[in-house]
Amino acid sequence: MASSGLQIVGFLLSLAGVCATIAATFMVEWGKGFQVKELSYEGLWMSCISTSETTTCEIYKNLLKLPIEIQATRSVMVASLFFAAMGLIISVLGMKCTRFMDAMPQGKGKAAVTGGILFILSGLLTIIITSWYVSRTVQLHKAAHHLQSKEFGHAVFVSWAGGLFTALGGVLLSLQRCWGSKSSTESKGTSHLLSTTNSKSNYV
Q1: N or C: which end of the chain has fewer CB within 10 A?
Q2: Can you give the pTM of this predicted structure?
């Protein structure tokens, strides 16, 4: 029962992390640029320019002309979401609170652990690429002209949180197998002890 509750907590943590990662991927505030009379926002899919009167957004049309930090971050975030989607599907199949694979208890446990590992991989990819993007942005900020500076935006923090929650939930899903095996071993030992005790009492 305890390991089942742990699975649910891990799954919900990962689900919250995946939702945050999706939100961060499509947010436009990955980078912010400041010029004399306008503020520009740089996302992974579009950019926006805001003045005191209007805000204009434009979707990127040519991927090859984008800065390397945008290309790499977008590709890795999509890969992270793919692994997270696979983790969601496989975890649902392997969780004790679902009816899937009840005829194969060992396979069900392995499915839950596999889903947890996929969540960990997804979370680590998100954290690593987000940290690299921030590093690149800081370098560009130092090299930029004093009238045109650039810094990272709110999407970075959402992405970090999403990666952390996804990986943490995956760890809980993976560790439950170890704890479940320990509980099973203790249960078998208790049953064996009770059986031995009953046998001795029958001789008496």
Answers
A1: C
A2: 0.79
